[in-house]
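**User:** Everyone, produce a chain:

**Assistant:**
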Amino acid sequence: MRKPFTAAFVTTVAAFLTAGPSATALAQAPATAAAPAAAAPAATGPSWADPANWRTVKPIETDNIVYATVPHINNPSAQASPNPGTPNGIRPALPNTGPPGTMDMHLDVYQVPSDKPTPVVIQIHGGGWIRGDRPSGSGSFGSFFAAGMSVVAVQYRNAIDAPAPAAVQDVLCAMSWVKKNAAKYNFDPNRVITWGGSAGGHLALMAGYAPASMYPPGCTDQPKVVAVIDMYGASDVAESLTFHGSMGFTHQWIGLDLPLPSDPALAAASTPVTPGTAPATTSTEPANPDGMPRTRPQAPRWPDPTEAVLARAREVSPLTYIHPGLPPTFIINGDHDTTYNPTQSYKLKAALDAAHVPNEEDIVVGGGHGNFSPAENQKGTILWMQFLHENGVF
């Protein structure tokens, strides 16, 4: 188990949250807690710990690189369910370079200028495995850039394109691409961090934990994952099949059963459902940063999971693969998350503790499925950056 955060660092974060986003306290922690204010000048903290520095490093951006051409796989579970709508930020489709029945998978590279190979963060978007796209810009990557890390943002097949475990396989192929192209983009293939929110958090965990038996053909040469950042992702997909907030899209992604025909939501299955249209239920949570809408289609009623469905869910559950030697893992979640059961993150931490895997958990009191306040978002970012630093990632 790693050593706890230093008192000076915790004091620094607390000072930032008290003073607000414009405070400079993060960069000026006192040399010792007991020292008089005038005894010595304030110590300067690392640049990555000061949000003022998060937009000062300009990476070299290369967009829409095809990292793999993969099959489109029919998924009746997704097709029989109401269309979840198109969230904001979806990019226009690009011409496909492969044969009919295939799809190009793309990634974007944000390369930090450096005279030596940089650690690289694999960013994986959320959206319940059924929707979403990689970010259209690098605005949320600034803390990594300030620490000298490059970022690769990855596309993967959503449920309508292929059922599980396709999304896991796509991310693993993107990881293999990173290692193959490390010299070209000045990546250090022995210092890879996986990072994502919601479904992206789950895929970040799987990318760091998956056994070699899950590597797709042609993608077996994997880089070394040295840390995982899991933002409110599912660690127990089997449990997600029966939790109210996640059962619908989890069944759609697993792809081995169909909604019960008596469900009235099926009447709209042939009509695209967009946020704000019936059938819908209104959530008290604001729109999620992973693209899940504020107003969601009514989740279809699904049969109890069969053993085959549960087996597939366990196959893609990070909890299945906990063992000593896994990458250090940082977990952040709200204790009022209604999309995934927040107890999943607690179970993940307990399992990592039992396996003596270094980990840290930041529970946002009153927080939902993301949507944290700006202060909480900055606090969480600084805490996981400190976690990466203390575990030797940079």
About this structure: Residues 1-43, 265-287 have pLDDT under 50 and may be disordered. The chain is about 25% helix and 20% strand. The longest helix spans residues 374-390.
